[in-house]
Amino acid sequence: MSGPVVIVGGGIVGLSAAYELLRRGRSVVLLEKGAADHDSCSLGNAGMIVPSHFVPLAAPGMVALGLKWMFDRESPFWVRPRLDADLFSWGWKFWRASTSAHVERCTPVLRDLNLRSREIFLRHRAELPTAFDLEDVGLLALCRTQQTLDHEAVFAAKSDAVGVPTEVLSADEVRRRDPGVDYAIAGAVLFTKDAHLDPRKLVAVLTAEVTRLGGRIVFDAEVTGWKGEGDLLRAAVTKQGEFAGETFVLAAGAWSPAAAAALGLRLPMQAGKGYSMRLERPVQRPKYCSLLMEARVAVTPMGSALTVGGTMEITGNDLSVNPARVRGIRKAFVQYYPAFKEADFEALPVWSGLRPCPPDGMPYLGRTRAKRNLVVATGHSMMGLSLGPVTGEIVAQLVCGEPTSVALREVDPDRHA
User: Fold this and answer.
1) Is 378 left (phi over 0), alpha (psi -120 to 50) or beta?
2) Stretch 271-295: mean pLDDT
3) What is the DSSP letter of 329?
4) At 12, is the secondary structure helix, strand, or coil?
5) Is 99 helix (H, G, I), strand (E, B) or coil?
6) Strand order in 374-378's β-sheet?
7) Residues in CB range of 347: below 8 A, 6 or more apart
8) How is residue 382 annotated by DSSP?
9) Among 16, 83, 178, 185, which one is least packed by beta carbons within 10 Å?
10) pLDDT (tens digit, 9 = 90+) per residue, 325-344?
11) What CA–CA distance (Å, rounded) separates 17 from 70?
């Protein structure tokens, strides 16, 4: 009988790994640093499944765009200036990775990961006992200006060429496909393989399934240390006690680097803070999830509600809310959806979460030389929800000695060692 697999992190990646391992008959202990009613980046995100996101965050032009946004208090991106060696190192690596060659290498990997994840989401919809509002109708990249639409049409052709189909739509075509919603746009690109869901419902149903299948979930169990012999881990140390295992999975999101450092494993990463607000009774409910291209704001229908979110703040593991950034989200949203007013958002709570962002925009996924029985599954940047199921599947494949769904060379967790 194989020993338990100990998974560190109870977000969508950790839950997906636990679920896939339990389906294969393995014993699982999942350690979550938060309480049973904890919040996490898996709960308040935009809920998008995005094969369209096949370009890594580190890409040509991103450094210049980021520097431009730095001087706008309401812009989608900001780095808190601070004397921090890790931040400087991360920025240097990001700049070095932002090349066409890097994008060319990584595009097929991100495409394949997202498309396989989409397949698993559809399987989840068929096999899980509770609905999580999965809608596979596509994603609209909404463009307010013709110049942006022309630019996105060029990207759409590249997307078609790599096997992620699109349709370029005029404003009238968007309105015909989504009647009853007012759009103030020049047009849009529809990514037909994208989808959306309610992440809160998905996390709840996966948590219930992991428990039903015999998995043990331990809350308030932040990992503070490790015990091992040579190149083997033996136990994770938490304030709830020690948890022995045969294999360990590090899936702790933005908190992964500290846990990894105690093992001699370097995982360069910055936490990218994002915000969201949820309108429970919106005046109009779009059919499609959408990205507001000029503003970098995400809009997602979730059941009868509507979630609006955005920003990327590099401010350390800090969950405080920056009112100027939230104002920027609200102001941008009503420019694209004129039936809404900024006042619609004024009384709403603002959720904040931390995305784990490696400097090259690629996840850390695979086994590591640091410890022979450790699998790393973190660093998904803005695609944690989208890539959660395929990451869980790959973790289970690695643990059980199966071939992996997608080649892992570009996501090697030792690539910055």
Assistant:
1) beta
2) 96
3) H
4) helix
5) coil
6) 216-218, 28-31, 5-8, 247-250, 374-378, 364-367
7) none
8) G
9) 83
10) 999 999 999 999 999 999 99
11) 37
Name the amino acid, one letter, at 356. P
Same-domain check for residues 90 and 166: yes
**What range defines the domain where residue 366 resides?**
5-42+201-267+360-411
Average pLDDT of the residues in 100-114? 97
Q: How far does Cα 258 stand from its chain's mean position?
A: 20
Side chain identity, residue 49: I
395 and 280 both lie in a single domain: no
Q: How many domains does the chain have?
A: 2
Nearest to 411 by CA among 224, 383, 95: 383
SS3 385: helix
CB-CB contact of 77 with 70 (8 Å): yes
> Which position has the token pair 């601070």?
82
Give 252's contacts (C-beta < 8 A, 6+ positions apart). 8, 9, 14, 33, 223, 259, 378
Decide: pTM greater than 0.85: yes
Kindly state the tokens that stand for 337: 């959806």
Q: Are residues 282 and 378 in the same domain?
A: no
Per residue in 382-400, pLDDT (tens digit) is: 999 999 999 999 999 999 9
Distance CA 368, CA 415 (A): 10
Distance CA 92, CA 97 (A): 9
Distances (CA, A) of 410 to 110, 165, 316, 372: 10, 24, 25, 20
Amino acid identity of 87?
L
Question: What DSSP element (H or E) covers 377?
Answer: strand 374-378
pLDDT score recorded for residue 316: 87
Residue 339 near residue 104 (C-beta atoms within 8 A): no
Do the beta carbons of residue 226 and residue 236 sit within 8 Å? yes
DSSP assignments along 392-417, one per residue = HHHHHHHHHTPPPSS--GGG-TTTT-
In angstroms, the CA 55 to CA 57 distance is 7
* CA pair distance 191, 140, nearest whole angstrom: 6
State whether 238 and 276 are in the same domain. no
Count of residues making up the chain? 417
Name the 3-class secondary structure at 188.
strand
**Cα separations in angstroms, 372 against 85, 253, 302, 378:** 29, 21, 41, 18
Torsion of CA 241, 370, 207, 210, to 10 degrees: -90
